[in-house]
Structure formats: C-alpha cells, structure tokens
Design goal:
The complex is a heterodimer of chains A (261) and B (440). Chain A is an alpha/beta fold and 261 residues long. Chain A contains 12 helices and 5 strands. The relative contact order of chain A is 0.12. In chain B, helix 3 runs antiparallel to helix 4, helix 5 crosses helix 6 and helix 6 packs antiparallel against helix 7. Chain B has 2 domains: 85 residues, no CATH class; 345 residues, Orthogonal Bundle (Cytochrome-c3 Hydrogenase, chain B), CATH 1.10.645. The two termini of chain B are 27 Å apart. Classes of the chains: A alpha/beta (261), B alpha+beta (440).
Chain lengths: 261, 440
C-alpha cells in the first residue's frame, strides 16, 4: 500500500443504524481497520468530519425524502467507490412497503398533524438515484462480508460476494432442512447466502433478509409452500418482507395476491 | 443590551440516528430551543397493520439496530397477553439473559464510544484507544460478550432471529451455557474495572428537578416485567400507560413528545431504573453503587453514564446466575392460539421503557399497533435539560457551548432511528412567544 491511507466515509439515510453498528461489531478488527483506512466521516461513532472527496463511501439506508435525493447526488460526486450496505440501501428496505400503499393515509394514521411530515411516496434503493459500485446485502450486513470487501479494495482487486442460496450454507453447517423436516415455510432456497444460515440453524424458517439469490425461482418455491398448506396470502406476505421491493420477491408476491383476489 | 447568539449543532454525532439542535439565547434567556429530529419516518405503525402478530418480532427488530431485543420483547409480551400464552419459567429466564446481552453491548458502546470522548476531549473511541489501549480493548471484549449472548439466543447480534411469540426458536444446550459461564465469571471482573475507569474520568454534573420513570418488579431488577413507577409516586399497571402519559405533536417541535398527562417531562433509562430499583441489584453491582454514592443514583442526567456502568456489571452477574442454574426447558416455545384482543407490553430497553400496544383480530393479524420508544419519552426532558443549561453557555465560545449541549444530549443515549414517531419539519424562523420558552 502507498503511504496514503484511503479515506472512508459512512453515510446514513432512512434505516435502523444496524448496518453501521455491524461495523462497530467488528470487535477484533475495528482498531486494526482504523489504522489501515482513515475514517473520515462516521457520525454514529465520531465527531470528526473530514469533508470529501473520499476514496470509499459506505451508504446505509434508503431514499425517502426530497432532501435525501439531493444529498446522495452530492455524496456520489465526492466518492471514488460507493458501496451500499444492507437491505435499505440496496432494495429500499422494509419501509419500501409504502411503495404499494397510500402514504398519505399512513401519515394521517401515525401523526396528528400529517401535513408537517415531509416524505416521498416511495422508499427507493441508492441505485435508483446514482451509480453504485458494489452492493453488500443483508439486514443487517454480515460484518465479515464488509471487512472482506474493504480488504479486497485495499488490495486493489474486486469484491467477490456469494450469489448462491442459503441452502448451501445450511448444508455446510449441517442444519436439518426445516422445509423438509418440519414443513416450515423457509425462504432459504431463493435467498442469498451470507448470514450463515442462522434461521435454519435455530430450527426456524428463513425469512429472506439477505434478499434474492442470483437466478432465484420463487415461483417454484411458492408452489412448494402452498403444498405445505400455506395460503396464497400467507406466501405473499412472506415475500412482502425485508426485501419486498426486490424485483423477484415483488413479482411473486403480486402474482399470489392476484390469485388471492 | 444582551448579546444574542444562535448555536446550531448541524448534525449530532455519536448518537444513533439523525438529529440537530437549534438554540437561540439572549442574555440568560432562551429565545428558542429545538431538538430537531430529521430522521425520515419509516411508518412502522402504518405497515405493521395487517401483518400476522407472530411476524412482529422479526419486523419490529428493524426499528432499531442498537436495541432490537427491546422491540422484540415489548411486542411478544403484548401479543402473548392477548393470546393468553403461558411462558415456561426457564424461557422467562432466557429472555432476561437475552436482555442482559443487549444491555451489555448497548451500554458499553455508549460509555466508551459515544460518551467517553466527551470526558476526554476527543473525537471518538478510536482516538481513546490510542491513549488508553488496554481500557478500550477491555470494553471491546465486554461488547463482544454481550453480542455473543445475543448470538447464542438469536443467531446474530443485530436483528437477532431467535425470539418468537411463546419463547425462542431454539434454546441453548447445557454445554453451550457452560462455555458462556466461564467467560461471564471473568466478565464480572472486567465490568467492575470498566466502571472504575469510566468513573475516574471527568464526568460533569447537572443536578436538576426530574421525575424518573421505570418498570419495577417485586423481586428483580426490571427487564421484561413490572409496574410503571416514578420518583413522584406513580404506580400503574403497564396496561394503564395511557392514563398517565400522552403523546402530542406540537408546532415548533420536531417529534411526538411523550409527557405526563399533567404536561411534565420525565426521564426513562438506566438512571431511572437504578433510582427506583437499587434494592434489587446483584452483590458486585450493589457494592459498586455504594462506592459511587452520592454521585449516583442522583437527580442528575449526567450521572446516567455511571448508572449504565452499574447495569453492565449487573447484567454480567445476572447472566452468570442464569447460566449457572440453567437446565433446558421442556420446549423452547409455548404453543399459542391466535385470538382477537388488545395487549400491552413494556420492557426496559437499554435507553429506557419501551411501551407497545397491539390490537389483533380473531386470526391473530395486527389491526392497530402503537409504539412508544424511550427516546420519544425522553425528548421533552432533553429539551428541558438544554433550556436549563443554556443560560450558562453565553460566557463560553460557540464551539464549547456546542460541545456542552451535545454532551448533555448524549447523556440520554438517544436512539433517534426509533423513528416510528419522529418527524421531519420545516420550521418557521421567528422569535418565540414569551411564554413558550420556559420549562414546562
């Protein structure tokens, strides 16, 4: 590496802060990482703010306000490599459920004075607004995957995150298949690996919080879940979860809802 | 002619979520004070309607990455009270263990990475690590242990997946618990040393008249169960929350503030729990408290960091007690039958009482849900605190005044991304009316 430490900035949009916290949960590596990169902006963890440009920007959260539409443009312009972290930044997050709903009604439901609430009708991923160089999936991201991506970039090579399904991780972990053994409505077959198959390892069904795997077949899984006794409505609701706005999940949920009527 | 100054803290650092502070002072008078929360609302209370109640633990965890257990626990208690679910006593202990993990990871994060930089005049925990490497490494070990407890029961520390209506998806084996036991015994000593170190730092004092509110249980330090009590004699069942507290959205404020029905602000969190429950501490935590009196418990929000340290120690001892006596329950979760009804749940998030009210239909789907996070309850109190602080700020430089305000806000460990209720507001810039500037 050159003497220049790459400048890293962390930015937050609509989110729960969990992906940023995952960085702080690198208990064994955090201090070492801070030696290799200059943490130029990480408001959740530091008062120090070094203005851009930054070599790498990590972006958490989805775009839900007009102000944030502008802010992400400025961040993009100041960032060498822009990496999105987690379900909100890469797919709009759980809050993208608003995309199908009447947000004005929700506002009126939650707030006595809805007119004071400034928000867009949609929650959209960062890639709907600017060019994204790399996406790290998960709700939250796996801190080891973030570390792996950063180390690859430090070495000057490209990140290589898995695109296969949770099933492979589940088999490697030796967890019994909850779909086969318990008839649980597991989304593992269509969900991206990366979590370590934590749900099946605890004996429960995966609910898709790492988003769709590469080339998923949710239509076939939906048939299987229906055969287990789930209603079309139940199966649709499972896909209307953390990654509800990701295209493969959105499409199957819509198809099932049409069937349900 | 009094000097008039405006202090703006554009983006609050070292808090979870997004907020800003606007403060205008004239002489020793506060003309305008607003803690602005510009965390965009995510409408959890909107989209949770129509979901199955059993989905709530997974969905509500996403409200806050720092305290997902609190959201999961308040939600399952509310739902179980509707369904009439009986919880195995061992599962109840495991829920306490789960909460111990969250208190440890959240409190230690706050003490070392969010608050301690203020006491040392540094930017962040990484800068502290350069000066006090052994202390910061010890706190990272403590956090790691808290996260390990969360992972044991929930698969991962952020948005854990183990909690469900009725109990857990899986419970630890005896041997997994034995492995944890050895580390917890060591952690008790580390938590004592951690607290001694934090207490040795120059922590400010800001004594003031405050009502402190927390859960209280007849024979344990409160986590999942208890009645709502206060230092001014409040004593209510959780289901009676609305008889004593009310949320309102007011002009020139940026969030729904939860106040006492008489209009008073109040404080929830570790200081309140300690003040109202010190008789239920474990031995080492009780001894640590005695050594720190009278600094804590005190009617002083700045002493919250010491209360956090005592609770970290308590959580290590309590987790050790649970691990030592552990025999796996007959079943990880009790079965439940969905039914229509209204349920209430209140549990003690690291930053204070978290109240949830759920209404379900006969199939167990959510008809209505209301979520009152601790930060919504502390918000009015934070503003009162800053109003009291403001007159003393004029003699200081803007930068110093800003840092003093930031530090005071951090004492409440606000978790702004609990944005079930928080607003983004366009605020009209004009002189505030005379009477709106006084602490209510």
């Amino acid at each position: 590496m050159s003497a220049h430490r790459p400048r890293l900035a962390v930015h937050k949009f609509a989110s729960c802060d969990g992906c940023q916290l995952s960085l702080l949960n690198l208990e064994d590596e955090l201090l070492l990482l801070a030696e290799r990169v200059e943490i130029a902006q990480f408001l959740e963890a530091s008062s120090r703010v070094v203005p851009g440009p930054w070599d790498v920007s990590l972006v958490e959260g989805s775009i839900t306000t007009a102000h944030d539409v502008e802010r992400i443009q400025r961040i993009r312009a100041e960032s060498g490599t822009l990496i999105t972290l987690g379900a909100c930044a890469t797919a709009g997050g759980i809050q993208a459920l608003r995309n199908l709903a009447d947000v004005e009604e929700w506002k009126a439901h939650v707030y006595p004075e809805p007119r004071w609430v400034e928000t867009l009708a949609t929650s959209t991923p960062i890639s709907s607004h600017v060019k994204v160089d790399h996406e790290i999936q998960g709700c939250p991201v796996n801190p080891q995957q973030v570390l792996r991506v950063l180390l690859r970039l430090l070495l000057g090579t490209q990140p290589d995150l898995p695109g296969h399904s949770v099933c492979l991780e589940c088999k490697r972990r030796g967890a019994p298949c909850v779909l086969v053994a318990k008839g649980a409505p597991c989304l593992g077959p269509v969900t991206r690996a990366g979590c370590g198959a934590i749900c099946p390892a605890l004996g429960r069904d995966c609910y898709g919080c790492f988003g769709p795997a590469d080339d998923p077949n949710p239509e076939a899984l939906a048939v299987q879940l229906r055969a287990l006794g789930c209603s079309a409505e139940d199966v649709a609701r499972r896909f209307r979860g953390i990654y509800n706005a990701a295209a493969p999940f959105r499409r199957i949920a819509a198809a099932l809802e049409r069937e349900h009527g | 002619m009094a000097e008039r100054r405006t202090i703006e803290v554009g983006a609050l650092a070292r808090v979870e979520g997004e907020g800003a502070l606007h403060l205008t002072v004239e002489g020793d008078r506060v003309l305008d004070l607003r803690l602005e929360i510009y965390e965009p609302p995510r409408f959890f209370e909107g989209f949770l309607r129509g979901r199955a109640a059993r989905e709530l633990p997974d969905l509500m965890a996403r409200i806050c990455g720092i305290c997902p257990v609190a959201y999961q626990m308040s939600a399952v208690h509310a739902v179980e009270s509707i369904f009439g679910t009986r919880i195995d006593p061992v599962v109840r202990q495991l829920r306490r263990l789960f909460y111990c993990g969250e208190w440890i990871e959240s409190h230690v994060l706050h003490m070392v990475f969010l608050a301690a930089p203020d006491y040392l005049g540094l930017d962040d925990g990484i800068a502290i690590a350069k000066l006090h490497p052994a202390e910061v490494e010890r706190s990272l070990r403590l956090r790691k242990l808290g996260n390990r407890i969360l992972s044991l029961l929930g698969g991962r520390p952020v948005n854990p997946v183990g909690a469900c209506v009725g109990g857990f998806a899986r419970v630890p084996t005896r041997s997994e618990m034995s492995a944890l036991e050895a580390d917890l015994a060591h952690a008790v000593q580390e938590a004592e040393a951690h607290l001694r170190w934090i207490a040795s730092l120059p922590i400010p004092t800001r004594p003031q008249e405050i009502e402190l509110v927390s859960l209280r249980h007849p024979n344990e330090y409160p986590m999942n169960d208890g009645r709502l009590v206060s230092t001014r004699g409040l004593d209510l069942a959780v289901a009676e929350f609305d008889t004593a507290f009310t949320e309102s959205q007011v002009p020139h404020s940026t969030a729904l503030h939860c106040r006492r029905r008489d209009g008073g602000a109040y404080l929830v969190g570790p200081l309140a729990r300690l003040m109202l429950n010190a008789d239920h501490l474990t031995p080492a935590a009780a001894a640590a408290l005695e050594a720190l009196r009278p600094r804590v418990p005190a009617f002083d929000p700045a002493a919250s960091v010491l209360a956090r340290g005592i609770e970290v120690l308590y959580a290590c001892e309590e987790a050790l007690r649970i691990a030592q006596g552990y025999e796996p329950p007959a079943s990880p979760a009790s079965p439940f039958t969905p039914r229509a009804g209204v349920g209430h749940g209140a549990t003690e998030a690291p930053r204070g009482t978290l109240y949830v009210r759920v209404e379900t239909d006969a199939s167990g789907d959510v008809v209505e849900i209301r979520i009152v996070p601790p930060t919504a309850q502390n918000q009015a109190r934070i503003e009162d605190d800053l109003r009291l602080l403001a007159p003393g700020l004029l003699a200081r430089s803007n930068d110093e005044a800003r840092r003093t305000c930031e530090s005071a806000i951090r004492d409440y460990d606000p978790c702004i991304s609990c944005s079930t209720h928080f607003l983004t507001l366009e605020i009209e810039r004009r002189p505030a009316p005379e009477d709106s500037c006084e602490p209510s």
